[in-house]
Amino acid sequence: MSRTLTVVGDINAVDTLTRLTAQGSITAPSLVVPAGMKKIIKIIAAIAADELADDGQYVAFVRLGGAAVLGGEQVIIFAGGGNQLPQTGSDVAPSIGIPFTLEDVDIAISPSDTISIAAEIAGADPGDTAMAVTLVYGT
Amino acid sequence: MPKQYRSREGTVTAVATKTQLTTLGSETAPGPLLVPAGAKRLKAITAAFGCDLTIAADGAYLVRLEGPGLPEGPEVVAIGASGVGVATGGGYTAPAVRVELNVPVTPSNEILVFAENTGEDTGSTAVGVTLEFEM
Fold first, then answer.
1. Would you call A70 an interface residue with chain B, using a CB distance cutoff of 8 Å?
2. Domain boundaries, given as residue ranges, for chain B
3. Chain A residue numbers touching B123 (CB-CB < 8 A)
């Protein structure tokens, strides 16, 4: 049996820890690990930037912590990107955030405790970014 | 047994020059990356990069792992490449790559994480690396 938790957020500055606590139309999804779930078995994460800052170059990572993560905070890199500012009047290719899926994650968690999911970008600001992270819990 | 994940990031700004990754976003001095106590091996690395494309050039990127936490010596892994034809445009987003390994480690000892731009100088490139330890 597995359960999922998905959270999203916008990160618009580098080196700024941002907690992901929303889920689109659900403003505050429960961050409590469902009963019976003992580990994170999969992580899916994606990010895209509007590329409206010049010389953007970044990597994105997620921080998993809180009382539910038994081994202490776990930090996982999941994407990177870079860009030049489009020239005035020109078209630019879209930034497509193909999701990264980390299988067989095996991070020990404590059911009924709260997990903290944060994310950051590091490097040079590419503009505004949007990201989404899904945790798949397992027994 | 559960796994432990340790990450570092940094920016590579010169070609054929190994650059140690010592930061972690808002953590400017996270300290040495130590092999977790009880870890038996480095199961995999996950890495991503982002180049600012300021130079019309092409290059490939490597991750180098060194230090006393690796009793068999350094490991070097290719993590990708990028290039652009003009220095006034371009942009991309790319998911990380995970490379499965089976490298013995020495618990509680340090692993130094470096990144390197090979080929032509591509500009400034952010590189992030996660080490996946099996306990």
1. yes
2. 3-134
3. 55, 57, 82
Residue contact A124–B11, C-beta within 8 A:
yes
- Which domains, ranges and CATH numbers included, belong to chain A? 2-85+96-138 (2.60.120)
E-assigned strands of B1-135? 3-12, 19-20, 41-51, 58-66, 75-83, 91-95, 97-104, 112-119, 125-134
The answer to whether the pTM exceeds 0.80 is yes
Distances (CA, A) of A97 to A87, A132, A134, B12: 22, 10, 14, 23
Asked if A139 has any chain B CB less than 8 Å from its own CB, the reply is: no
Does B24 reach chain A within 8 Å, measured CB to CB? yes
CATH for B3-134 (2.60.120, 2.60.40, 1.20.1250, 3.20.20): 2.60.120
Contact assignment for B130 to A47 by CB distance below 8 Å: no
**Model pLDDT for residues B69-105, shown as the tens digit of each residue:** 999 999 999 999 999 988 887 899 999 999 999 999 9
Contact B25 A93 (CB under 8 A): no
